[in-house]
């Protein structure tokens, strides 16, 4: 199996390895599910 250099499956979550709902802003590369778990530890604040 070769690694992808571009497209949807080229990046994956650093924590769980999935390709779904990937947050790439600020070079986080964390999926939405993992982000909800670790956002407060990373310094993000929830406003709503």
From TrEMBL:
Any single GO BP term: cytoplasmic translation
Entry keyword annotation includes Ribosomal protein: yes
Protein's UniProt name: 30S ribosomal protein S14
Cellular component, GO annotation: cytosolic small ribosomal subunit
InterPro entries, A to Z: Ribosomal_uS14, RIbosomal_uS14_euk_arc, Ribosomal_uS14_sf
Annotated keywords: Ribonucleoprotein, Ribosomal protein
Molecular-function annotations in GO: structural constituent of ribosome; zinc ion binding
